[in-house]
């Protein structure tokens, strides 16, 4: 029999009604999101046969975060977060249905995907930090790490299921159905948000609106808080060099493993299963709070897995290594997210999380261009390995510095 204490620890954030509603809505919606991610990548390859152009689309999808993340943080701290998220989810719905219509009618062109991906990135820039900052309003500080882990678990459950479904649907009915199903899935999120109730309206603190001063305050706060600065620098390195799976896996599957859409979907699902297991592990460990060893170990393990992927061409071994990559990646990002939120004052949460979003997603265009360009000249396997080596070097430096600091403290 399962230990009841373990079960209570694993699911304790679900005792909050608002978070339960959020959990259900996100589980449905994120499955659709991953179906669209797979469909979009496959559509671009069918239209262009170019890994570089796939990298361009991925880069443009995150490019708005480079320019809009910091202003978005001020906006999130100033207005009601739930209303912001309702608006962003409605925008996602419109964009998904637009791409579905273009694809279904056979009129879709590469530039359509480029424009829609860029608009999606603009919405992401507001939605991602708003959802992260909204978690603490639903569950409070005591259950925040568990809520982050549970949120990560549904994200990665969707990552496991969505690509597999998408691979089958693409083979049977084409990519348009993936975009249509994603559009429908946003209705679940809107439903969950509209049903939420709060004793007092969260967020929306009225004060003078000072864009540049507010951004500067948040940046100084991060600079003067060593744990925030170090965590965000590591997140930046991993985001650029180690999380380019949407660019590299379809290329690796098609050109190196000679697999079609179903094989690509299976590989992405393998990654998602590993990530889901990592999220569950994080939820179990949430009672003990953030652990620097898990943060650094997760990043180092991800680096090693990427290097190993780059030096083999077995479909089964690739699936296994992608699963391990998912496990390590979620462990790292989950610990990083929790560390940042628990070391941030409430009044700065939106702005600090927007900077976190910048390092997490805003630098992705550089990673996508790195992956697309290097895989064009050196092929996907060596791109995986090179990214792993760069990240591994960064984590090795941090681990050695921590060890030296510990030795000096002991002396």
- In total, how many beta strands? 0
- If helices are DSSP runs of H or I spanning 4 or more residues, what is the number of helices? 16
Tell me about the largest β-sheet.
none
Task: Supply the helix-strand structural class.
Answer: mainly alpha
Helix content: over 70%
Measured distance between first and last alpha carbons: 48 Å
- Alpha-carbon Rg, integer: 20 Å
Poorly predicted regions are: none
Task: Indicate the mean pLDDT.
Answer: 85
What is the percentage of strand-forming residues?
Answer: under 5%
Written as H for each helix and E for each strand, in order along the chain, the element string is: HHHHHHHHHHHHHHHH
Write a structural description.
There is one protein chain. The protein is mostly helical. Helix content is 83%, strand content 0%. It is built from 16 helices and no strands. It has helices spanning 4-10, 17-48, 51-62, 64-78, 81-104, 110-139, 144-173, 176-195, 211-223, 226-241, 245-256, 261-284, 292-309, 315-342, 349-362, 364-410. The radius of gyration is 20 Å and the shape is globular. It starts with a helix and ends with a helix. The model has no long low-confidence stretch (mean pLDDT 85).
């Amino acid at each position: 029999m399962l230990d009841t204490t373990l079960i209570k620890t694993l699911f304790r954030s679900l005792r909050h009604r608002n978070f339960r509603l959020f959990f259900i809505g996100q589980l449905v919606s994120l499955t659709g999101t991953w179906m669209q991610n797979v469909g979009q990548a496959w559509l671009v390859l069918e239209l262009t046969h170019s890994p570089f152009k796939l990298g361009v689309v991925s880069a443009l999808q995150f490019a708005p975060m480079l320019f809009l993340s910091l202003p978005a943080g001020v906006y999130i701290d100033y207005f009601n977060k739930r209303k912001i998220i309702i608006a962003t989810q409605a925008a996602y719905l419109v964009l998904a249905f637009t791409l579905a219509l273009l694809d279904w009618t056979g009129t879709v062109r590469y530039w359509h995907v480029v424009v829609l991906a860029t608009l999606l990135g603009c919405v992401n820039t507001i939605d991602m930090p708003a959802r992260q900052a909204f978690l603490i309003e639903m569950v409070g500080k005591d259950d925040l790490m568990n809520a982050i882990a549970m949120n990560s678990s549904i994200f990665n459950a969707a990552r496991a299921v969505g690509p597999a479904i998408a691979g089958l649907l693409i083979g049977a009915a084409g990519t348009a159905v993936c975009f249509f199903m994603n559009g429908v899935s946003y209705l679940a999120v809107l439903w969950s948000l509209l049903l939420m109730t709060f004793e007092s309206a969260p967020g929306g603190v009225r004060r003078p609106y000072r864009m540049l001063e507010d951004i500067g305050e948040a940046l100084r706060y991060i600079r003067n808080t060593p744990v925030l600065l170090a965590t965000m620098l590591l997140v930046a390195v991993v985001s650029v060099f180690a999380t380019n799976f949407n660019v590299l896996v379809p290329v690796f599957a098609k050109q190196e493993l000679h697999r079609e859409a179903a094989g690509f979907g299976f590989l992405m699902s393998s990654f998602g299963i590993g990530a889901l297991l990592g999220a569950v592990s994080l939820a179990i460990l949430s009672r003990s709070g953030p652990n620097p060893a898990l943060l650094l170990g997760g990043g180092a393990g991800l680096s090693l897995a990427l290097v190993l992927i780059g030096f083999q061409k077995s479909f089964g071994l690739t699936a296994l290594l992608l699963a391990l990559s998912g496990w390590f990646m979620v462990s790292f990002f989950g610990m990083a997210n929790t560390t940042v939120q628990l070391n941030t004052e409430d009044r700065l949460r939106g702005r600090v999380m927007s900077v976190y979003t910048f390092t997490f997603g805003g630098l992705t265009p550089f990673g996508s261009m790195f992956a697309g360009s290097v895989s064009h000249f050196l092929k996907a396997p060596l791109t995986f390995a090179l990214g792993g080596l760069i990240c591994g070097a960064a984590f090795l430096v941090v681990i050695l510095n921590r060890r030296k600091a510990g030795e000096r403290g002991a002396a």
